[in-house]
Design a protein that fits this description.
Layout lengths: L13 H6 L1 E5 L13 H4 L4 H10 L7 H10 L4 E7 L25 H11 L3 E7 L22 H5 L4 H17 L6 E5 L19 H4 L1 H11 L4 E2 L33 E5 L16 H13 L3 E6 L9 H17 L6 E2 L11 E6 L4 E6 L6 E4 L6 E6 L8 E3 L10 H4 L3 E4 L11 E6 L1
Parallel strand pairs: 1-2, 1-7, 2-3, 3-4, 4-5, 6-7
Antiparallel strand pairs: 8-9, 9-10, 10-15, 11-14, 12-15, 13-14
The protein binds alpha-D-glucopyranose (GLC).
């Protein structure tokens, strides 16, 4: 059994830490300008202009069944989709607002179709819900708000009532957790307490748990779906730590107690969450695979994002990126599902990453660079029963101690090495995986 023990979570994370790999979906009106999901505030777009997106929103090719098929093929076991992003637009038929997909030319509850489609493919279902809301009339203007630099910002801010907005969130979370069956993940986003305005803007206040009335909000969610996994971004610790847009290099620990925590890195294929037509920083296939492997090798999950086009389909770049995972996971998912950080006694050689099955019986060695002829695995002599490539189940021969009499190894020092004999030609896999069955 793995010796790593993580901090207890209020929700049920057992399926989550087994499944390791999920799909994030950012969809909303911002897919139309196609210049980042923050476009409204980045460009301080007027309400009048932003209304054009609402008026013309029509994802006529919206087909979450197709997305779900691709997610499943990519090896993703759960999914988290935006029900409302910072722009405030709701993709579900909420009683508490008119600013929703059913009132656009689209005319549909997009969340209903999403839930049905992904559930039918057997994925666990998650909802992203933005705490920030740049449309709601009671959401106070602050330094992130699109109206922050308007000449009449202070006037516009008069009478905005955060308590009413907090109640609105509770009502919507109640709808989301009541009307769509079992929901496995709730992903709130995000708090920025202390990021207040300066000088003439000092009336603008950042927002955190007090503002969201986070305790009540969380209690509402838990009362409806007790096992649900909730992230920490309300500013109150729950189940999930969520590093974003950087790659942790070790297991994330609790700041005060030092305990290992349940964590999930969220990442993008290119530099934006929402569909961004002209963005060019698409990650290479190797990098995509390394991100997944690195994450699991540090005991975490990866939530990889797609931003569908405003017509509702995944563009060719997103499809190609998903296909990278599909091709690799088809043969190598055993080194991901049910796996975690290898026991501390195992140190991977240069350019390699280990994962280990939860029951401790198998080690998986991922080769980021393919070595010539031999690979020495320190500390494994006498501990391994059988070795094979994971992708084709072909045997890999090995010896212990030293390579042979031609080698210039210091035999005294190296005698706890396990030495693998590798074929000269790298297998037809971007990241080959070697499966070691421990004694
Ligand atoms: C950030 C961004 C947001 C994105 C999220 C995903 O906090 O505000 O646009 O939805 O990260 O993690």
């Amino acid at each position: 059994m793995s010796s790593y023990v993580t901090r207890k979570t209020p929700g049920d994370t057992s399926w989550f830490t087994h499944d390791r790999f999920g799909m994030f979906i950012h969809f909303g009106l911002y897919a139309m300008p196609a210049r980042h999901e923050w476009v409204k505030t980045n460009e301080k777009i007027s309400e009048e202009h932003y209304d054009l997106y609402f008026k013309h929103f029509n994802p006529d090719l919206y087909d979450p069944k197709e997305w779900a098929k691709q997610a499943k093929a990519a090896g993703m076991k759960y999914v988290v989709m935006t029900t409302k992003h910072h722009e405030g637009f709701c993709l579900f038929d909420s009683k508490y607002t008119d600013y929703k997909s059913t009132n656009t030319p689209c005319g549909k509850d997009l969340i209903r179709e999403y839930v049905d489609a992904f559930r039918a493919e057997g994925l666990h279902i998650g909802f992203y819900y933005s705490l920030i809301d740049w449309h709601h009339p009671d959401f106070p203007i602050d330094v992130l708000h699109p109206r922050r630099d308007d000449a009449d910002a202070l006037e516009l801010n008069q009478g905005r009532d955060m308590q009413k907005y907090a109640e609105y969130m509770r009502n919507q979370v109640t709808e989301l957790l009541t009307n769509y069956g079992k929901i496995d993940v709730l992903w709130f986003d995000f708090s920025y307490d202390g990021r207040d305005g300066e000088g003439p803007c000092s009336w603008m206040k950042g927002k955190g748990k007090e503002d969201w009335e986070a305790e009540k909000l969380l209690a509402t969610a838990r009362s409806l779906q007790p096992d649900i996994i909730i992230d920490n971004r309300t500013d109150i610790e729950q189940d999930l730590w969520t590093p974003e847009q950087y790659q942790p290099t070790g297991w994330i620990t609790h700041k005060e107690t030092g305990e290992l925590v349940t964590w999930e890195a969220c990442q993008t294929f290119s530099g934006s969450w929402g569909y961004y037509r002209d963005e060019q920083t698409w990650k290479t296939p190797e990098m995509l695979l390394r991100m997944l492997i690195n994450t699991v090798s540090c005991g975490g999950n990866l939530l990889m994002n797609v931003g569908p086009t405003s017509r509702g389909y995944l563009d060719y770049r997103a499809e190609e990126a998903l296909k990278v995972y599909a091709d690799w996971m088809k043969y190598n998912s055993r080194s991901i599902y049910g796996c975690t950080m290898a026991e501390p006694e195992f140190t991977a050689p240069a350019d390699c990453r280990y994962t280990q099955s939860e029951d401790g019986s198998r080690l998986y060695l991922h080769l980021f660079a393919y070595p010539f002829a031999h690979l020495c695995l320190p500390g494994l002599a006498g501990k391994v029963e059988y070795v094979q490539f994971l992708h084709d189940g072909s045997e890999i021969l090995f010896t212990e101690g030293a390579i042979d009499h031609f080698s210039a190894q210091d035999e005294e020092k190296k005698n706890d090495d396990l030495i693998l004999y590798l074929p000269p030609v790298k297998p037809h896999s971007l990241v080959p995986v070697i499966e070691l069955f421990l004694k």
